[in-house]
Amino acid sequence: MSSRPLRGIAAALGLVSLCCGLALALHHPLSAPAASAAFLGWTLAALRWPRLWLIALPALLPILGLNAWSGWVIFDEFDLAVLGLAAASYIGFARSWPQGALNALPCSAWTMLILVVLWQMLAMTRAVAGSDSLQFSWFEGYTDPLNAWRVSKSWLYALLLTPALLAAITESRERVVNGLANGMTLGLALLCAIVLWERATYPGLFDFSESYRTSALFWEMHIGGAAIDFYLVLATPFALRFLLQAATRLRWAAAALLLIVVTYVCLTTFSRGLYLGLLVSFIVICLLQKASGANRSSNSIEFAWRTGANKALFILLAIEASAILFGGTFMLDRLGASQRDFGSRLEHWTESAGLLKTPSDMLLGIGPGSYPAAYSKAYPARELPAGFAVRNDDKNAFVELLGPASQGRLGGLFGIGQKLLLEPDVKYVVSMDVRAAQPTRILVKTCVKHLIHEMDCRSRVAAVQLGEDWQHMVLPLPPTGGPIRSARPGWLSISLISPGRSIEIDNVDLLESKTGTSLLVNGAFSQGGSRWLLTGHRYFVPWHTDNLYLEATIDVGLVGLVLYLGFFLRALIGQIHHRASCGVEDRAILAAVLGALALGLFNSLFDVARVAFAFIILCILIAAWPGVSQNSD
């Protein structure tokens, strides 16, 4: 095929990516001008330095989601980053198409990838078309039609950037794997810094008894899930690679320090599934190291110091792990509850599989993004605890807040919330207009909170009377039950206690009682759901299947699962076949992918788009290994 048609297709894809990215940036809830400027700057930088994204994108991945502040659910900054890269890549291809780039990925891998993406898009279309409401909103949620896009976009984005990845591989595969490995290492270091801040701000760096699990800036965990778990299992092998490649004492010391902090981060997730995934990754790296004979060079006098240093580091990491796991009560409690938790997980999987009621459901799935609504409807005892939507009445915007449909025990667990800074020794007053079709009770509170763990709460329960007219409420919040050490980020949340009720809310404000200073943004909802997000704690069952393979079966059916597994296996086979000749980076990539597949036995992946994207890109990279010449400039 001549390059002219390919260049035409590239120009069209570049233009579409640029327009979609600009449209998204112009509707950014935090600042449209800033988002637009950042998007255009990012796109121009990618156009000027076409290979920069191989380091920059994985390095920025832990922070490409400001949804806890913006209120978005379906879209985030990750979309802007990928669309900017796609626009730059395809505009570059329109000027000069890279000859032979597409041949860097074997035909069988191309076939599997395209089949998976086509099937995913078909399933997404079915899910959206089968929805009761097709009205578009920038602030749709987990039970709305566009949730299908949120769950599916990682596959489309990976395919969109595959030509750019392959073009870089044809120039120098060694440079590509080094760039991605360095980017993942930098991203892991960034994540470590965020986690250290989070632990210091909330439970304390050395408090291992508080039931607090690290989440960093993975906003997706506001409804539970394993976003940080999957990221860590993908990124940690690259920290080991950094250590194994350290040629000087200074670089070794930096790698050792990173591993010490990474160990702290991994252990303070208190995730047993993550521990399993990391164990699999570590075993894979050890086996591949042995198969390649990589340790032989370390026996020279020049690197003899490494043997003793590595042993000392291993002992130090073992001491650190023991101190974290057994220096408090939280992990001991979790280990003691393992059998009970596994029984609950099996019950959850059985119930989730029960959503596939017909042969058509088994083969095709119920549609990506459909799980939360379908599960909640099928099992009322495990229903969604809350929901909200922005409505309009005579040009006046307000929020309709829903509580649990039938389960009173779920009342007050989730509600609408906004992130803000809570000051010590300050009294707060909440004011708002409410309207209810039935008498109900609401819970209003401020809590020091990052995403899911609440502390130092000030709460007030109020009764809302039946009425067609708006009622103005002023609710002084009581002092906190415990001392607030300093100003810390937290949330204001409003939730319904009474089941089977809904309430309309408008003109919400949180005021400092002495100064009358207003602390909220968009309390009148004139900007839609901007700055407001569903927030809660303790109960996360209806949002996740907690199994990657069951998740795929429910979303895209057994046909889709077979395609997924075919793609994963095609990627792995070539790398395993060439295991003796692959480099340290390739071993880290293979360990990351296998660790993620092991973690997937107990957690869902594809509802965290940016991490799923990284996983797919790593699979594509190892699929491109066989038969690709490793040129170097």
TL;DR?
This protein is α+β, with helices and mostly antiparallel strands and 633 residues long. Helices cover 52% and strands 14% of the residues.
What can you tell me about this protein's structure?
This protein is of the alpha+beta class and 633 residues long. It has 19 helices and ten strands. The protein has helices at residues 3-26, 32-48, 53-60, 67-70, 77-95, 107-129, 147-171, 173-201, 227-245, 249-267, 272-292, 304-326, 330-336, 338-353, 359-364, 371-378, 548-577, 584-599, 609-623; strands at residues 387-393, 396-402, 414-422, 428-436, 440-449, 454-464, 467-476, 488-496, 502-512, 533-536. Strand 5 (440-449) and strand 6 form a beta hairpin. It starts with a helix and ends in a 10-residue tail after the last helix. Residues 626-633 have low confidence and may be disordered.
Task: Specify Rg, calculated over alpha carbons.
Answer: 25 Å
List the helices and strands in order. Answer: HHHHHHHHHHHHHHHHEEEEEEEEEEHHH
Main sheet characteristics:
5 strands, antiparallel
Number of strands: 10
Class computed from helices, strands and strand pairing: alpha+beta
Please bin the fraction of helical residues. Answer: 40-55%
> What multimeric state do the chains show?
single chain
Beta-strand fraction estimate: 5-15%
